[in-house]
Amino acid sequence: MREIQSIHEPLGQGISVIYELDEIIVDIETPHQRLTIAETPAYGRALFLDGLIQSSEADECLWHEPLIHPAVLIHGEPKRVLVGGAGEGASLRELLRHRCIESIVAVDLDPAVVNACREHLPDWHQGSFDDPRVELRFEDVQATLAEAADGSFDLIVLDITDPVDEGPSVDLFTVRFFTEVARVLADDGIMVLQAGEIDPHDMRVARTVNSTLGAVFPWSCLLKSYVPSFHALWSVRLAAKRSFEREPADLAQRIAKLDGLRMYDLEGHRALLHVPRFLADKLAEPGKIVTGETDARLFAFQGES
Fold first, then answer.
1. CA–CA separation, 62 vs 262, rounded Å?
2. What is the rounded distance in angstroms from the CA atom of residue 115 to the CA atom of residue 112?
3. Where would you tag: which of 39, 56, 93, 225 has the fewest CB atoms within 10 A of its CB?
4. Distances (CA, A) of 68 to 77, 236, 242
5. Do domains 6-56 and 61-284 have the same CATH topology?
6. Could you confirm whether 159 is annotated as catalytic?
């Protein structure tokens, strides 16, 4: 395989980002995807999957803290957690700050990714893979769901990759998949989804995710965070079978119990939830509902087939 000196990532219509690489730590084709860990001059050490940046040393907290803490604190006291996309272990690191969490089933399709991150991204996972509350499994999260009993989890975190052509997550952004998620989610549970870029010019992905989730869950909530290494406003979707208060009355007290946070606080929570009016108007327009029962799928960076 040819050694790479830079990674060109599609960002939007007519736009791409070039990440220069100072040093390549890992660059392999796994059975599921291309895995690259490299030193970059702009963002320090970074993880790429199929040529798309997943997180960087400089700003990973701007992704992982918003992914985890609003959902846990809005819920109040989740005990049983499923993580789809264990990856770098950073989402596990953040979950384990919460004393209420008793068990985490952490699933990843690709052991090569987890093993590389264990070795080369220690600041991300900080030993979280070895915490006694964590059960690590290497399997398709769809198999995990199929084996789980109804209402097995209080919190389900889907930190999955973007749906790219021939990528491992294409079948996960569908009504069929979200219906199975809803089945194993407790009636008072919350699902958290990595929901992709919010592009004011091209809202196809955001609207499709919104409408597809809405076909399954009666309540959802959008959070967004600007992550410099992503060069975009990135979104997290919370979804549930019942409504939740987006800012519980004692949220400040709940946050104060957490140690080691770098970006998440009460004002940060409010900022994550605030969507500018012009974006809210665009998001309110209906998108396609991807059922999963036909060949139609949501693809980031290209039209649907």
1. 8
2. 5
3. 39
4. 13, 10, 19
5. no
6. yes
| 91-106: pLDDT as tens digits | 999 999 999 999 999 9
| Active-site entry in 59, 159, 162, 199 | 159
Which two tokens mark 19? 């990440």
Q: Which of 11, 34, 304 is nearest to 174 (CA)?
A: 304
Q: Which CATH architecture has domain 61-284?
A: 3-Layer(aba) Sandwich (3.40)
Token pair of 264 as six digits: 């998440």
Residue carrying structure tokens 């975009």: 232
| Strand (E) or helix (H) holding 134 | strand 134-138
pLDDT digits (tens, 9 = 90+) for 213-263: 999 999 999 999 999 999 989 999 999 999 999 999 999 999 999 999 999
Could you identify the residue written with the tokens 């999963």?
292
Please give the class, per CATH, of domain 6-56: mainly beta
- Domain limits of the chain? 6-56, 61-284
